[in-house]
Amino acid sequence: MAQPFLGVLALLLSVIVFMSIADAASERAGTDTQLLSGDRVLLGTVEEVRSDQARINTGEGQPRFVPMNVRKDKGLLDLKKGDQVEITVNDQNLLVDVHKVGESSHHRVIQGQLAEPLDTGHDKAVIRTKEGKEESHLVRPVARSKVASIPVGADVTFLIDELDKIVDVTMGTTESIHRSAELGQQKSPLKGNLSQIAGVIVTPLKNNTIVIRTEDGKEHAYEARPLIQERLAQLSRGQSATLLVDAEQQVADVSFNQAENSKPRQR
Fold first, then answer.
1. Which spans in the chain are helix H?
2. Cα angle for residues 69, 75, 79 (degrees, 5° grid)
3. Which domain holds residue 213?
4. In a domain? residue 213
5. pTM metric for this prediction
6. Number of structural domains in the chain
7. Domain end point (choices 182, 208, 225)
8. pLDDT tens across the length of the chain (267 residues)
9. Which of 26, 153, 155, 214 stands 20 to 30 A from 251 (CA)?
10. 87 and 15 in one domain?
């Protein structure tokens, strides 16, 4: 008889602890917590800290392992066994942030657009806000693939953490999702309107620059955006092509006849 009684008692204690965590979380939710659509908060208890990782029981069946540097980088106290925590995960079930219950967080939300394609490592982004102001932010590793998939010019919402880094991003409205589809989900998208420069390639891509001769006989040299360089490298000397050049006079896209690639060309 003792074992069933102890089992019921343990269950009741678990419910009481869970409710106390939830109450504390709800008190904080109305103050400074900011979440994007698809984000969710998991409540849990630290069971063990080992090798710079905290094992957290969230009641999901499998524990969550949270790297300690997520908090250390922000100057927050290390987690210890028994701490009650809130884990924020995004719509891909990846870690966004972790805080002790009752601990203040200062996330902010920015509505705007990517002002330009991400650099090669996808670790830095320039955001243009709805007011037209441009801000540069580092991108946390967990958010890099999501940010890199956002087309320049699409309306999105960014979640910025206490260190002013992007930790999540989501499409802001149904309208912006349709607009993103129209942009073709390009990962080397345009900044402003693109000019079409039709002609013949004089100098194939070299040192990030390509030279084209237009119909009026003039030669024009353009730098290439990082995400279009691989495609531009397929062009040979003498090949016809149309370069799509953005407002900064850099090639953002290219159109050419793939069949011409099979013909021998002088480079």
1. 2-29, 69-72, 141-148, 174-182, 229-232
2. 55
3. 195-262
4. yes
5. 0.49
6. 3
7. 182
8. 555 555 555 555 554 444 444 444 444 433 345 678 778 888 899 999 987 889 999 888 888 888 888 888 788 888 999 999 988 888 878 888 888 988 877 788 888 999 988 877 788 999 999 899 999 999 988 788 888 888 888 888 899 988 899 988 887 544 443 444 444 333 333 333 467 788 899 999 998 899 999 888 899 999 988 878 888 998 999 998 888 887 778 887 777 765 555 455 444
9. 155
10. yes
